[in-house]
């Protein structure tokens, strides 16, 4: 039941991965529409269908839009800094960033918003809300600032451990709630995003330095970046989903 409900929660992300991999394997060369633009239009259709079928609520869609904007801003900066690149041409793009990239971040937001509702999340020993907002802001700022200033992610990880050390997330598979440490939950989701990132780079949706000519697995060090992104994502979703205590 846990696996089934998790798979249902990440429907948006799974469809995006199918779109990336399917177009990599089967999209015709010389098509009048660039592959990246086809992916962008496909992502718009997926989002529209999920809203039309009420698989996402309007409140969740607002948060997902924030993910789209936050992700696109970071993409513009990171591609300019040479952290990764998009090797194919497109018409629907901003700078060197095709518009479908924002939907990849939105798929993370969609998953967290849906899994929160599907599993009826409750929390015990949750840190003060102001502390989570400051942590999310510090993580996002460090993604940019470490290009010029010392990278303080070690201090951020320490702060995350301090505030969430005793936080439990309670989730309901069927009739009653079970629990796990929230830090473990963050790690499990970050690990699955890392797996998805390997699929995305294999499908040439984007490439890291060293992957331009031949695909290689994304380094496990990226798992830390995704872990921190999970904190940002979780805090953003908490803006519209209540942080409730167990009954």
From TrEMBL:
Pfam families per record: DUF817 (PF05675)
InterPro entries assigned: DUF817 (IPR008535)
Domain of life: Bacteria
Alphabetical UniProt keywords: Membrane, Transmembrane, Transmembrane helix
Record-annotated membrane-spanning stretches: 7-27, 33-53, 65-85, 91-109, 130-148, 154-171, 183-203, 223-243
UniProt entry tagged with the keyword Transmembrane: yes
Keyword Membrane recorded: yes
Protein name as it appears in the record: DUF817 domain-containing protein
Organism the protein comes from: Qipengyuania soli
């Amino acid at each position: 039941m846990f696996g089934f409900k998790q798979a249902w929660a990440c429907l948006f992300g799974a469809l995006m991965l199918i779109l990336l991999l399917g177009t990599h394997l089967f999209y015709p060369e010389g098509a009048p529409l660039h592959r990246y633009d086809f992916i962008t239009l496909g992502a718009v259709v997926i989002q529209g269908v999920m809203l039309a079928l009420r698989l996402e609520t309007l409140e969740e869609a607002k948060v997902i839009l924030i993910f789209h904007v936050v992700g696109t801003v970071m993409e513009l900066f990171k591609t300019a800094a040479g952290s990764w690149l998009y090797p194919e041409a497109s018409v629907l793009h901003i700078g060197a960033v095709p518009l479908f990239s924002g939907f990849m971040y939105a798929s993370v937001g969609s998953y967290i918003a849906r899994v929160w509702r599907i599993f009826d999340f409750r929390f015990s020993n949750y840190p003060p809300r102001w502390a989570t907002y400051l942590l999310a802001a510090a993580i996002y700022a460090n993604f940019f600032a470490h290009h010029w200033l010392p990278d303080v992610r070690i201090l951020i990880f320490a702060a995350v451990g301090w505030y969430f050390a005793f936080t439990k997330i309670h989730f309901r598979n069927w009739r009653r709630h079970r629990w796990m440490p929230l830090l473990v939950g963050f790690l499990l989701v970050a690990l699955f995003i890392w797996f998805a990132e390997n699929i995305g780079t294999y499908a040439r949706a984007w490439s890291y330095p060293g992957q331009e000519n031949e695909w290689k697995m994304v380094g496990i060090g990226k798992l830390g970046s995704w872990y921190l992104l999970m904190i940002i994502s979780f805090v953003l979703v908490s803006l519209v989903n209540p942080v409730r205590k167990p009954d």
